Amino acid sequence: MSKNYFEIKRAGINTTFQDQGRNNLYHIGIPFSGAMDNRNFQISNKLVGNDLNSPTIEFAYQGPLLKYFGDNINFAISGDVKFMVQKKNKVIEGNCYQSFTLENGDEIDIVTTNKSVYGYLAVSGQLDLNYQWSSCSINTKANIGANNGKKIEDGKKIYISKINKNLNDKKLNYINTKIENIRVIQGTNFDYFSDEGKNIFFEREFTVSKLTDRMGMRLEGPKIENIVDTNIKSEGLIKGVIQVPADGNPIIMLSDHGTIGGYPKIGVVISADYDKLVQLTPGSKIKFKKVELADAEVLFKLYDLETQNLISQI
Description:
Layout: E1 5-10, E2 16-18, H1 38-47, E3 56-60, E4 65-69, E5 73-78, E6 81-87, E7 90-93, E8 100-102, E9 107-113, E10 118-123, E11 125-127, E12 157-163, E13 182-186, H2 195-203, E14 206-212, E15 216-220, E16 235-236, E17 241-243, E18 251-253, E19 260-261, E20 265-269, H3 271-278, E21 285-286, E22 288-290, H4 293-312
Parallel strand pairs: 13-22
Antiparallel strand pairs: 1-4, 1-12, 2-3, 3-10, 4-9, 5-8, 5-10, 6-7, 6-9, 11-12, 13-20, 14-15, 14-21, 15-18, 16-19, 17-18, 17-20
């Protein structure tokens, strides 16, 4: 057993291990899962010199309190997060997008995310985790992934099988920004909805409800009228698709979504806006803006290029 490990003193609200997820398993009902905010996930790994797909600790709202035992190691936190580092009798207020060195006995207290949902803790080493289908990503709805597919709990020890000895301090000047409109392409059942319903979808404001997790985001607001059928034969779903059930309130499928569903689909959130979408807290307002498929493809390429440019600065 490795002598380098974290002990979880407080697990936090929704703390899991995540990498970039698992591919090509929709046919057996397994979604991609993986980090909700892929840009912040990759940045956290680069700050500690890891491969960009190395597992990290993803947390929501309140994060974990961890005590470290072992040789010196670097860590970094990405997102809009308040955290502190306890070093012997000294408390350091942490800065996101900056690496820090941990020594034996140090503690990291991830207090809260600030006006956002998800943050990422990466360490300069290889976490000793179990993999399923080439990924350690935890899907708690299906009990798949590391930690027997369950959230990280109090008292757990997280072992590090190999430490990256490059302890150079790294920093990125980056600020998470909000997005004015969530851009969508037309869904496969767009014509199921009345003209008034379509206008409401694109012109009115919706509120993110408390019924939101890694599986989906429920919205509240003006009802979207369906003039054909509020149920369809179950069809395949993808991340970002927007279903409208009989109550007229949209549901956006997120990373741990079910792979089939029988509610009509009015739209799909474009990939370029997904990272910012998942960071919207309950009570946040959403407005949708329609774009064409060709525009969505260009926007994704630009967003991906921007992400790679940020990573290259580290």
